[in-house]
Amino acid sequence: MSSIPSFGVGTFRLTGQTVIDSVRNALDLGYRAVDTAQIYGNEAEVGQAVAESGVKRSELFLTTKIWTANYARDKLVPSLRESLDKLRTDYADLVLIHWPAPGNGVELPEYMEALAEAKTLGLARRIGISNFNIELTRQAIAAVGKDEIATNQIELSPYLQGRKLTAFLEAQGIAVTSYMTLAYGKVLKDPVLARIADKHQATVAQVALAWALQLGHAVIPSSTKRENLASNLLARELVLDADDMALIAALDRNGREVSPEGLAPVWD
Predict the structure, then answer these.
(1) Cα separation, 176 vs 91, whole angstroms
(2) In this predicted structure, what is the pLDDT of residue 1?
């Protein structure tokens, strides 16, 4: 599981100069993992920020995700080549299937095999999935083997803890990447988290991120503000005790923020 950095910067909903500045600031502050996707429409800007950062490609971990329109066997690899051109690189460190999109006309074995082919061609160092439930993860394992699936990137926050799914993934040796760890900022107003933050002289965001890290998950928070990017990174040094973790465990309320119709599976 150690092949995936535990801390990266996300770029969801960031475009244009905003994403260039965010990625540039993140790299300047010491981030070395950047997460993007074809549908974000910002791969070229991410590529520009990376190119202008002066950070060696070998020190970076770039993740992108294949969009549903490109799942067919004859489209996936060409679409990834386009993404790599935008990112100004020969390979991505991690390429994910963005959503399972049941019923979109391409069967799961076809797109998983096409993704595995991208790895064989050297376009992706690692491959994985995103937003897959237990059953669909089983099907992905059946298609390419569990050792081929580096991660399942899923929405997780103190309000959506997904214990059944994360336990299954851990049993399979598939790393968990948590996105939306701050639940669109909703957890920042949580009184329980605020008390824990006060106790540790930390921010609520740091507490939520440290919680995910201590569970063994990778995190990819985004921010447009340099000070927040710097502050988030400090979550790596925050150690929550058993009482803190128990209090956060009790906040679970199935508070899902993202579940687009036609793309999302039936959640566990």
Answers:
(1) 22
(2) 39
Closest C-alpha to 25, from 214, 182, 208, 227: 227
Q: Residue 95 and residue 121: Cα distance in Å, rounded?
A: 13
In 3D space, the residue among 255, 244, 220 whose CA is nearest the CA of residue 94 turns out to be: 220
Considering the four listed CATH numbers 3.20.20.100, 1.10.1760.20, 3.30.200.20, 1.10.287.1080, the one that applies to the domain covering 9-184+215-224 is 3.20.20.100
pTM for the full predicted model: 0.97
Instruction: Report the interhelical angle of 242-249 vs 191-200 (nearest 10°).
Output: 170
d(CA 105, CA 177): 27
Q: For this structure, is 40 an active site residue?
A: yes
Q: Domain extents for the chain?
A: 9-184+215-224
Which member of 40, 71, 159, 179 is catalytic? Answer: 40
Angle, in degrees to the nearest 10, between helices 43-53 and 16-29: 40
Instruction: Kindly tell me the burial class for residue 160, based on how many C-beta atoms sit within 10 Å of its own C-beta (0-12, 13-18, 19 or more).
Output: buried
User: Under DSSP, is residue 182 helix (H, G, I), strand (E, B) or coil?
Assistant: coil
Look at residue 103 in the predicted model and tell me its pLDDT: 85
Averaged pLDDT in 10-residue chunks for the chain of 268 residues: 85 98 98 98 98 97 98 98 98 98 94 98 98 98 97 98 98 98 97 98 98 98 98 98 98 97 95
